[in-house]
Design brief:
By secondary structure, the protein is of the alpha+beta class. It has helices at residues 32-38, 64-84, 109-118, 120-123, 139-149, 153-160, 177-181, 196-208, 242-264, 274-287, 304-317, 326-335, 341-352, 355-376; strands at 12-22, 45-47, 53-57, 87-90, 130-135, 165-166, 169-170, 187-188, 219-220, 222-225, 230-233, 292-294, 301-303. Strands 1, 2, 3, 4, 5, 10 and 11 form a 7-stranded antiparallel sheet that branches. It has a two-stranded antiparallel sheet with strand order 6-7. Strands 8-9 form a two-stranded parallel ribbon. Helix 6 (153-160) packs parallel to helix 10 (274-287), helix 9 (242-264) packs across helix 12 (326-335) and helix 13 crosses helix 14 (355-376).
Length: 377
């Protein structure tokens, strides 16, 4: 049976995937190796599958504020290196015009192995997400909490949608990124399991069948991460700013706290019907926060913003979310009509008719938010 590391409940680890873009053209550029060669200190900046990507990660954090401060510190240290190499960063789920066919793989055996195994399917992974690790006390709780969180993955995706464009096309989706994972045989919606033993048996069979070589090959929207003693929420698009990232991290942690409380009280739910999980994922991908999400197994629905508003107030009332925090305020603003990144990008493109204006605005958003955070700190 797989070992599950010891972890303090509800601690956080956050991973943010960044686009590396040329300062002049605003197109993706293969300068991640040069940036990494100049990076010193803690390994908070890491390579990804393509040389035009970087991943920022935090240490173990107790609160969303801690995770935000960690990310801001790393990003601030990275910016002078970026200027030295004439690049900027975008943090959304896709680059509006970049073509995956033109990207260079990062020279690592794992990435070349992914391409060799999955070919064109893996070559399209020019997508950028937010991954949130949440500490769990034991593996059984991890599976039970994961099953509870399946009810809210659609809401988390809707709130984070930031990839309406793909290779110079307006896709009509709020999140085109999330659809790319669906082509991977071990990606997207997770295989549903009742307990830790069933999960371990699944992993053993997948390895025996050579469907996966390690747990890293489970590219699910949410998965256990035994190495860290966490569950890892992977459904979200990358957020345009670190402030928005922290907002989603706060919501993720609060939902996990609520789920853990239900599990501990013996009233945790098993996973929802598979059709409900997939339908909410599709609705969030298509419409973002304008979606009507399925909120009952009988097929009843509720507007996403209305559902988010009710969820926030319940989380606050139950003590799972700090009601006076900046993150709760940002979530309320979103519930009350503040646009997602996908909505902001679409509106700007409709006004200007150019993708260049969108990419420049995204880089400006990321950098301006860093300055705001520095002033606040």
């Amino acid at each position: 049976m797989l070992e599950f590391a010891r972890s303090e409940p509800h601690t956080l680890g956050v991973e943010v995937e960044l686009q590396v873009v040329d300062r002049q053209t605003m197109e993706l550029t293969a300068k991640a190796p040069q940036l990494l060669s100049r990076w010193a200190g803690k390994p908070r900046v890491q390579p990804e599958i393509f040389q035009s990507m970087l991943e920022l990660s935090t240490g173990i954090c107790a609160t969303p504020d801690d995770a935000e401060a960690d990310l801001r510190e790393t990003a601030a240290r990275l910016m002078p290196i970026a200027r030295e190499h004439e690049v900027r960063f975008i943090a959304t789920g896709t680059h509006p015009t970049a073509r995956y066919q033109e990207r260079k793989l990062f020279p690592a055996a794992r990435y070349h192995g992914l391409i060799a195994r999955n070919q064109w399917i893996a070559r399209r992974l020019l997508i950028f997400g937010l991954h949130v690790h949440i500490g769990m006390p034991d593996p059984e709780t991890a599976i039970a909490v994961q099953n509870e969180l399946l009810y809210d993955l659609g809401l988390l995706l809707a709130a984070s949608t930031s990839s309406p464009f793909w290779q110079g096309e307006a896709t009509g989706l709020a999140s085109s990124r999330i659809t790319v994972f669906e082509a991977l045989p071990t990606g997207g919606t997770p295989t549903l399991v009742h307990d830790w033993n069933e999960f371990c048996e699944l992993v053993e069979r997948l390895q025996k069948a050579q469907a996966i070589t390690s747990l890293k090959d489970l590219w699910w929207d949410i998965r256990p991460s035994p190495r860290y003693g966490t569950i890892e929420i992977r459904v979200c698009d990358g957020l345009a700013t670190i402030s928005e990232t922290a907002m989603i991290v706060a919501l993720s942690q609060a939902l996990a706290r609520r789920a853990s409380e239900r599990v501990a009280a013996g009233v945790g739910r098993t996973f929802p019907p598979a059709w409900r999980i997939r339908e909410n994922k599709w609705r969030a991908s298509r419409h973002g926060m304008e979606a009507d999400l399925v909120v009952g197994n009988d097929g009843s629905t509720q507007p996403a913003r209305e559902y988010l508003r009710a969820t926030i107030e319940q989380l606050v009332a139950d003590g799972h979310l700090e009601g006076q925090s900046r993150h709760a305020e940002a979530l309320r603003n979103l519930a009350n009509g503040a646009p997602t990144s996908a909505e902001r990008q679409r509106a700007l493109y409709e006004r200007t008719g150019t993708f260049d204006s969108v990419t420049r605005a995204l880089a400006e958003e990321f950098e301006s938010d860093l300055l705001v955070g520095a002033a606040r700190g």
